[in-house]
Predict the structure.
Amino acid sequence: MFVISQTDKRPMYLQIMEHMKQRIAVGDWTAGQAIPSIRQMAADIGVSVITVKRAYLELEREGVIVTRQGKGCFVASDSHVGARIREQELAQHLEQAVRSAAMMGLSPKNLENRVRAMYDRVTDKEKERV
Amino acid sequence: MTDYAVELEGVCKSYRFFELQNIALRLERGTIMGLIGPNGAGKSTTIRILMGLVHQDRGEVNVLGHRMPEEQIQAKWDVGFASDDMRLYDSMTLGWHIQFMKSIYESWDDRYAQVLLKRFGLRAEQTIKGLSHGQRVKATLLLVLARRPKLLVLDEPTTGLDPVARHEILRELTAVMVEDGRSILFSSHNTQDVEQISDKITFIDRGRILDSMDKEAYLDRWRRLRLEAPDGVALRALPGVIGIQQTGRLAVAIANAFEPHLPNAYESTGARVRAVENMTLEEIFIANVERSREEVNA
């Protein structure tokens, strides 16, 4: 069940988009699968139809979902949609990291070394857990 | 049949100390409209006029295709109205009220009434006088919802409720909208409720409508820009900005007609844009009322 966060500063429609993308990314919703109608989703989350409609329209524009007249809404049948969303997420995180680095005046080389060090630290931790 | 569940045009009503001026609003079928305004803004008067309880001095009022107040009897079969001053019979049980409504309204849905009883944590054998304020509000709403009216008109349905009860009621209102073509108009001074469940927002203050439009488009027009001015420069309000406040080098600009190029426009005046923030309906509401009162007083 998805809950709108009141401390999240982003508009509700963006939160809904993110939630739907996550469901696809984790494999709850698979390529081509039918998803709830706009009205149903609005009632499930407890928000206005217009807000959900906006989230669906934006997701359709991004090619994440498709609407077929009279049949309903579906996850895009492109089988890589989950991977594509994870790719987008990564790109966003990288962009933020690069912006922060630029603001601090780090060189690309310096940032690269930091990323390498972070990669080793995180993978080491993962190994410890296993 | 019109496409509007509610249509008001040029509606005026004068009282000795209060005047409703030229009210115009339209609620499309299948949508929820939140009517927001401070206390005494004219929300309840507007609602009373569209229910035919108060007659306008001038102007057209249409509810589900019926002219008001002339055709209020026909209109009321399809309209569910609930307000704080609705009186239930204190010594009777909720179950008695349910039977009473069932005997009057053909559209009464007994199964739904049972579901609502459970969901709202109410019991049919309770007498009205034994109910708490929150339970009473929920009981009133149950009696209106289970009629499954085409239009729900609710005057401050969440006022004085605890967070749990408020949440239950908002949930139930959005659930109503699953069925096509049903409409809700509700008033509130809780902007968070309105932001969450409304498709359309109408702002009212001192008897005038300040804005009435699609919620998503409306929220999108407002932004707060955090700016840094070059030394000794006072930033001015560029087009689309309704107010700017500066202390030292830091300034905050409020835009009510935000365009994506606005941050660039400030950058080209030599300012640095530190952040562009979305605003909550509450922040917009306050900025809007303050501005309109300044205009009136100027």
Observations:
- The mean pLDDT of chain B is 92.
- Chain B touches chain A at residues 30-32, 167, 170-171, 174-175, 177-178, 180, 192, 195-200, 214-216, 219, 277-278 (CB under 8 Å).
